[in-house]
């Protein structure tokens, strides 16, 4: 849209000082809900980093609610999913266990299982359909493709490649772009015209990531073990003498093309106490031996510029690092992360059968190399214009470091995806943006997508939590500090086998409270992770309480008046049947429960449940019944209120013992002399076993309530007459109370 136009017929240049325009759009094209709160938080942060009005993201975010879709996956909640195949799938279980332990529930799914249950034109489409299912029904955020996609080599096509097409730039296979973005962008099917050539302009590809995807490009057990070892070492216990190092090897691309400004820009973003090694060919500081030596010393991060192919990266004299060099690196556990604008270095399908690409050699090197690489599967692109402006490959890579150093987006899969998301609006623009879509397709992550990137030397966490807790449902308070200061956004996870699992992030005070329900004595693991801190791993002792110990067991949701999916969704009215369990060693008598909420968007119409007597190790559910409230105004100040409720139910017993029928009711008559004084008469009757005689208990209450400040302060004086049918006790009570209501 331009304010000037030239009218050729009259030879006039016209300036428009005001322009009116109309926007046409289609409503309800995407679901208005997102499956889980964690997805909403993670994707919300990603969106904030690429929009001009981040303050409005929360207001326009989708509500948390289930999306109905056909599903083949078993019931579960898995934020991190590994897709692999026998026999290497079992190796990834170690990685899955760590992700689960630190607060990202994880699982492994095999390609053969997906192939059996999901439909699709080919195996790649079946895998993508599974990921869509996992996103909608498991709440999946991260996907690790646990296997190579080399379809040329026998035994190496573990998780299939989706080759995409945008335009012709080299002909033949050089125009077929291997794109793991296909598994990340879950909108549409990437083949709107149905010709099975994926990613064309006519296919209306969205290009924004809906899950964060990385690939472990391995094809045997030893390679998978090495991959898992590198990720766990980098996350949990890296050497500390290489974290704050950034290497910038930079070859001359063309005599007329100035490649240093982008590297200088990345260098300026690095923290001031980092060691930045500018290895510029134009400055005479880049050599092959220097590159090898620098890698062997160990660098946490590196952005590599140069020409490239599937076998290495090049400067004017030749390769400044190639696959053979990568195979001989000896940097040990000082494994870092590198991305590059070079062509073809990530082309896992370009070598002859049996060969691996340069990125694979770097990441799969045992005893050194990298723990992750982000490299192009085909050509990288600079800008076509005179003078220097960054091209699309340079823009994406520079944005990666901006996300990391400036926006604190430190999980590598998110850092990578958001760097590409930022340039989606320019995907098909011309001049310096030309070939942006190509770059978005073919730039892939070789690594674990959830792995956090270190940006400072690791610090030690101090965690305050209970040394022991009883079995049963409860909240566990945890406070996380370092050097005496609270740690915000630390992820705390509590897990005890298959009995209980809870995770959450600390607030600015370093505090989080997690609801857990251990069911047996033993140890509950506590794990805390935070950016630039060593993980904290310990345990809390779970003990058997003495006497009765009533714990909330579960709540059965009846949303038959809503969508009937058994979950509480926005706008629904539901009935919930609560169950409690006695985890103690003695019977719990006359158990009564109150339900409360802290969500301003939720209201409770009936908040109490009576459960009767609950034996040790037994469970009971809410009674069935009803009630009524009647108010009658006598004058401007005087009124009468009647309240009554009855309930009855069955306590299910262990096998071999008859169920217990119970019932109860109460009637309350109140006389309000004025708004401050209420006189009351109340009758309560509880029969915990209606099949037994002389088992009920009756209370008659005579009393008065005095209210101050409306109903926020109440003083009560009650005389309670207690009558037990089984035994007569002289246990009447006079009860005086003061209550505050907030």
Describe the structure.
The protein has 13 helices and 40 strands. With 742 residues, the protein is an alpha+beta fold. It folds into four domains: 36-203, Gingipain r, domain 1 (Rossmann fold, 3-Layer(aba) Sandwich), CATH 3.40.50; 238-446, Rossmann fold (3-Layer(aba) Sandwich), CATH 3.40.50; 462-543, Immunoglobulin-like; 550-740, no CATH class. A hairpin with a 2-residue loop joins strand 14 and strand 15. The two termini are 57 Å apart.
Quick overview of this protein structure:
With 742 residues, the chain is an alpha+beta fold. It has four domains: 36-203, Rossmann fold, CATH 3.40.50; 238-446, Rossmann fold (3-Layer(aba) Sandwich); 462-543, Immunoglobulin-like (Sandwich), CATH 2.60.40; 550-740, no CATH class.
What brief labels describe this structure?
13 helices; alpha+beta; six-stranded mixed beta sheet; seven-stranded antiparallel beta sheet; Rossmann fold; 742 residues; Immunoglobulin-like; 4 domains
The CATH class of the largest domain, by name, is Alpha Beta
Main structural class: alpha+beta
Mean pLDDT: 90
Low-confidence stretches: none
Q: From the alpha carbons, calculate the radius of gyration and give it in angstroms.
A: 33 Å
- Beta-strand content: 25-35%
Could you say which overall geometry the principal axes of the C-alpha atoms support? elongated
| Spatial ordering of strands, largest sheet | 34-35-36-37-38-39-40
Distance between the termini: 57 Å
Provide the domain count. Answer: 4
Count the beta strands: 40
The biggest beta sheet is recorded as: 7 strands, antiparallel
Question: Roughly how much helix do the residues carry, as a percent range?
Answer: 10-25%
CATH topology of the largest domain: Rossmann fold
CATH architecture of the largest domain: 3-Layer(aba) Sandwich
Total number of helices: 13
């Amino acid at each position: 849209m331009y304010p000037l136009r030239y009218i050729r017929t009259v030879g006039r240049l016209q300036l428009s000082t005001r322009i009116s325009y109309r926007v046409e759009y289609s409503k309800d094209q995407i679901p208005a809900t997102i499956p889980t709160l964690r997805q909403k938080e993670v994707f919300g942060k990603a969106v904030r980093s690429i929009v001009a009005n981040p303050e409005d993201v929360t207001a326009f975010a989708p509500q948390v609610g289930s999306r109905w879709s056909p599903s083949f996956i078993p019931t579960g909640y898995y934020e991190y999913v590994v897709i692999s195949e026998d026999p290497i799938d079992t190796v990834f279980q170690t990685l899955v266990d760590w992700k689960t332990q630190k607060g990202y529930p994880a699982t492994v799914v095999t390609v053969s299982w997906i192939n059996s249950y999901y439909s699709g034109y080919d195996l790649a489409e079946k895998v993508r359909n599974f990921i869509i299912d996992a996103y909608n029904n498991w709440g999946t955020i991260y996907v690790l493709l646990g296997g190579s996609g080399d379809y040329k080599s026998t035994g190496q096509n573990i998780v299939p490649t989706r080759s995409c097409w945008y335009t012709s730039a080299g002909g033949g296979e050089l125009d077929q772009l291997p794109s793991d973005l296909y598994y990340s962008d879950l909108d549409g099917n990437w083949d709107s015209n149905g010709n099975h050539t994926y990613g064309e302009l006519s296919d209306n590809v969205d290009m924004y990531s809906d899950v964060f995807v990385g690939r472990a490009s391995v094809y045997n057990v030893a390679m998978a073990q090495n991959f898992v070892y590198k990720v766990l070492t980098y996350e949990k216990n890296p050497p500390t003498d290489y974290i704050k190092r950034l290497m910038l090897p930079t070859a001359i691309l063309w005599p007329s093309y100035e490649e240093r400004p982008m590297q200088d820009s990345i260098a300026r973003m690095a923290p001031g106490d980092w060691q930045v090694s500018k290895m510029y060919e134009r400055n005479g500081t880049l050599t092959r031996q220097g590159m090898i030596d620098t890698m062997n010393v160990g660098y946490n991060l590196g952005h590599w510029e140069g020409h490239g192919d599937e076998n290495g990266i090049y400067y004017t004299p030749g390769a400044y690092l190639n696959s053979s060099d990568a195979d001989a690196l000896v940097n040990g556990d000082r494994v870092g992360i590198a991305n590059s604008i070079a062509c073809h270095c990530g082309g896992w399908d370009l070598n002859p059968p049996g060969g691996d690409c340069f990125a694979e050699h770097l990441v799969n090197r045992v005893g050194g190399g990298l723990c992750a690489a982000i490299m192009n599967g085909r050509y990288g692109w600079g800008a076509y214009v005179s003078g220097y402006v960054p091209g699309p490959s340079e823009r994406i890579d520079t944005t990666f470091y901006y996300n990391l150093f400036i926006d604190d987006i430190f999980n590598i899969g998110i850092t990578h995806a958001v760097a590409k998301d930022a340039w989606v609006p320019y995907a098909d623009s011309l001049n310096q943006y030309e070939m942006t879509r190509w770059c978005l397709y073919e730039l892939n992550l070789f690594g674990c997508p959830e792995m956090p990137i270190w940006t400072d030397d690791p610090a030690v966490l101090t965690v305050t939590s209970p040394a022991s807790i009883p079995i049963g449902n409860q909240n566990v308070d945890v406070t996380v500090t370092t050097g005496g200061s609270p740690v915000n956004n630390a992820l705390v996870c509590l897990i005890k086998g298959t009995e209980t699992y809870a995770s959450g992030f600390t607030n600015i005070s370093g505090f989080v409270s997690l609801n857990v329900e251990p069911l047996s004595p033993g140890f509950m693991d506590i794990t805390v992770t935070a950016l630039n801190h060593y993980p904290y791993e310990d345990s809390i002792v779970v003990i058997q309480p003495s006497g009765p110990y009533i714990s909330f067991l579960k709540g059965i949701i009846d949303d038959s008046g809503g969508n009937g999916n058994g979950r509480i969704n926005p706008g629904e009215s539901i009935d919930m049947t609560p169950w409690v369990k006695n985890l103690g060693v003695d019977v719990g008598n006359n158990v009564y429960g109150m339900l409360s909420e802290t969500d301003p968007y939720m209201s409770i119409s009936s908040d109490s449940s009576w459960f009767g007597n609950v034996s040790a190790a037994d469970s009971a559910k809410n009674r069935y019944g009803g009630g009524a409230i009647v108010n009658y105004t006598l004058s401007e100040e005087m009124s009468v209120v009647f309240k009554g409720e009855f309930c009855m139910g069955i306590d299910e017993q262990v096998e071999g013992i008859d169920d217990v029928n119970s019932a109860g009711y109460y009637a309350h008559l109140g006389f309000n002399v004025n708004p401050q004084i209420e006189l009351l008469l109340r009758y309560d009757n509880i029969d915990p076993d209606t099949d037994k005689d002389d088992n009920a208990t009756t209370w008659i209450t005579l009393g008065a309530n005095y209210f101050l400040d409306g109903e926020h302060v109440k003083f009560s004086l009650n005389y309670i007459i207690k009558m037990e049918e089984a035994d007569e006790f002289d246990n009447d009570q006079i009860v005086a109370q003061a209550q505050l209501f907030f």
